[in-house]
Amino acid sequence: MSDALTSRRALIAGGAGLAALAAQSAVAADLKTPPEAAAALAANGRFAGKVVLITGATSGIGRATARAFALEGAKVMFCGRREGLGAEVETEIRGAGGEARYRRADVRVEADVAALVDACVQTYGGLDIAFNNAGIAGRAGGLGPEFDWAVHNDIMATNLEGVVRCINHQVPALKARGGGAIINTASVLGYVGSGPVMSYALSKAGVLSLTRSAALQLAGDNIRVNAVSPGPIDTPMMGGGAAQASGARTPAGRAGQPEEVAHAVMYLADSAASYVTGEDLKVDGGVRA
Predict the structure, then answer these.
(1) Least CB-packed of 121, 188, 275, 283 within 10 Å?
(2) Distance, first Cα to last Cα, the chain
């Protein structure tokens, strides 16, 4: 058999395999139907031996992602300001057979961030993946005399400066392991102007810029830096029906689930994304399309 014929048959066989895989994916993924939380996460151990640090993991996206990483074999150190919820999440993950430790930390406080990273390294021996997710919402109001600088400054200190602070402390630990991955939570609002939530949108635009700059600075250290930009996600932060109302206006016609963002984070953390850095993965049901 000639080499050319063999190559053609290999291509045909490969194409058939990809088509079958695509068909399976089409059946498994349904843009219009939200996944059930339990069924959305599958344990296959792809992060076994990895140490993951997550900020803002006492609820919503952070909580779902901490659970997802632990289910797939990672050792997870996570933080949040609400100790009761932190203990609840830790108990939940351990009860499911995962490994996780909660530590109270406020990303606005330098000493808290330093202690969090140190505790992660001391407890689990290092750091491979960091998910900087801690963030708050708020309304500082429109520009003018009524602008609330206290609210604005708190949003910026948490959502943007907190990410800078975390990365600064995470980098030495990642370098000590020969590199790793950093994922930051931005938002689709970081791409557009906003009236009522201008400060929040501004903070997330800053996270997108920071992600690109950090990716350039840290590529030589084998550290990939990416972001996820959620759209309307059904979390406590978007309570009171806001997620559902916003989700109904997306091309998908629904709000996203925290587990759907967790999958995006895990892709960016995985070796499957080894050539991806400085990128933002939108998980928004088509809002930015």
Answers:
(1) 275
(2) 48
Structure tokens at 227: 């972001």
Q: How many domains does one find in the chain?
A: 1
**Domain annotation covers residue 9:** no
Is the pTM higher than 0.90?
no
Whether residue 4 is contained in a domain is answered as no
Catalytic residues: 200
| Residues making up the chain, counted from first to last | 289
Angle, CA 115 vertex, CA 112 and CA 117 arms, to 5°:
110
Is the residue at 7 inside a domain?
no
pLDDT digits (tens, 9 = 90+) for 17-54: 333 333 334 444 678 888 775 444 455 799 999 999 99
* 13 located within any domain: no
CATH of the domain at 273: 3.40.50.720
